[in-house]
Specification:
With 420 residues, the chain is an alpha/beta fold. It has two domains: 320 residues, Glycosidases (TIM Barrel), CATH 3.20.20.80; 74 residues, Immunoglobulin-like (Sandwich), CATH 2.60.40.1180. Helices cover 30% and strands 19% of the residues. The chain has an eight-stranded parallel beta barrel with strand order 1-2-3-6-7-8-9-10. Helix 7 links the parallel strand 6 and strand 7. It is globular, with a radius of gyration of 22 Å. The two termini are 34 Å apart. The mean pLDDT is 97.
Length: 420
């Protein structure tokens, strides 16, 4: 499907970092989070994605604090986090550190006591009894009516508010496929002229790929979970990536991740799902064709599920164990010519294709080599081609490393990443 909208020039090189503001600090505020900006900048993060910052409905509220995704007003700030000036200042500081800022936008539904329920009740779907409702049975939200053109216009005006007032750089669009595709087209035509914007969709619906810059790689996440449960083999992962290569063929990037707010809270941490393979899969997210995502606390690493509707602070300490691991991956993703050129990965055949994934990405004489052991056993690997031999530079240490023979040894869930 041909793209109709240009992408921002910084997309291919960027790493996305999801901010769960409520759980990030004891205060759970914009100002408290700002103290982490130097650390995240040092790690190399380029895009901060803030989960919804709008007020949360009181009616139908779940837990003590409610769901971020049950908005009470599209044009104001959740007082739990601070005020509008606090957010403006945070965006300004992020920009000063060289980062972009996007906010979560929930367009399919609002909370039960959103201001529109009183001022514009016709903006909502209603059942035969004239009551607001949600199509999916979620009991803390109600659906907006996209047949109502004034509602669409006011929603786009609310999105414009955050661009003009706070200078944000784009939107992460919640459950984008539940909203008519032509609304997102309408929003982009209205908002893109204001400044270059980045548009991330929580969807894998192929009909939406021409509207958004990046879309979720849910199928990869589910497939890798099946693999680690021993319900699928490595060949099925290779086949899925071949399908991605066809589906994401016109500029839109898949978003790869091992955790996000939904996965962590409801399905488990990456260590629950992948065990000792978690770091290897994170490495994949940064080296395959796509955009990588880091969720709040993964750099610790965080080993607990964070509560969704209640306060449950990330347990930061003075030793961020995976800071340098992610720093090296972010630097590679941001600077390697093959990634910047969106060069497509090419598989390398080995004698352990049942346990090892190996590929290269090449562009104008530059090459990225990635080898990953997808098994819990050490692997002595022999490549089918002598082309892998030669001198490389290790992506983590920067040190020269040579492959004198087309072979290598990897420990369980080990990996080799190098450039030349």
């Amino acid at each position: 499907m041909a793209r109709k909208f240009p992408v921002v020039p910084w997309m291919n090189s960027s790493t996305l970092y999801e901010v769960n503001l409520r759980q990030y600090t004891a205060e759970g505020s914009f100002n408290a989070f700002a103290q982490h900006l130097p650390r995240l900048a040092d790690m190399g993060v380029q895009i901060l994605w803030f989960m919804p910052i709008t007020p949360i409905s009181v009616a139908g509220r779940k837990g003590t604090l409610g769901s971020y995704y049950a908005a009470a007003d599209y044009r104001s700030v959740n007082p739990e986090f601070g005020n509008l000036d606090d957010f403006r200042n945070l965006v300004r500081q992020a920009h000063d550190h060289g980062m972009k800022v996007i906010i979560d936008w929930v367009a399919n539904h609002t909370g039960l006591d959103h201001v529109w329920t009183r001022t514009h009740p016709h903006f909502y779907k209603k059942n035969a009894a004239g009551e607001f409702y949600d199509t999916h049975g979620w009991d803390d939200v109600i659906d907006l009516n996209y047949y109502d053109q004034p509602m669409r216009a006011m929603l786009i005006e609310a999105m414009e508010f955050w661009i003009r007032e706070c200078d944000i750089d784009g939107f992460r669009c919640d459950m984008a496929h539940l909203v008519p595709r032509d609304f997102w087209q309408q929003a982009r035509r209205a908002l893109d002229p204001l400044k270059p914007l980045f548009w991330l969709a929580e969807t894998e619906d192929l009909h939406y790929l021409d509207v958004f810059d990046t879309c979720y790689a849910w199928r990869w996440m589910h497939a890798t979970e099946k693999y680690f449960r021993k319900e699928a083999d490595l060949r099925s992962l290779v086949q899925l990536l071949a399908q991605y290569d066809k589906d994401f063929s016109d500029g839109t990037l898949p978003l790869f991740f091992t955790a996000n707010h939904d996965e962590n809270s409801w399905n488990g941490t990456e260590y629950e799902k992948y065990g000792d393979g978690a770091k290897m899969l994170a490495l994949f997210s940064f080296t395959w064709h796509g955009m990588p995502l880091i969720y709040s606390g993964q750099e610790l690493p965080n080993h607990k599920r964070l509560k969704f509707f209640d306060k449950d602070q990330i347990e930061w300490n003075d030793h961020i164990e995976l800071h340098d691991f992610y720093k090296a991956l972010i630097r590679l993703h941001a600077t390697d010519p093959t990634i910047l050129a969106a060069a497509r990965p090419q598989w390398l055949a080995t004698d352990r294709n049942d346990a090892v994934l190996a590929f290269t990405r090449s562009y104008e004489g530059r090459e990225l080599l990635v080898v990953m052991n997808f098994s819990a056993s050490p692997q002595n690997i022999r490549f089918s081609s002598m082309a892998v031999t030669g001198n490389y530079r290790d992506a983590f240490t920067g040190h020269p490393v040579g492959l004198a023979t087309p072979s290598m040894h990897l420990p369980p869930y080990g990996y080799f990443v190098a450039t030349r």
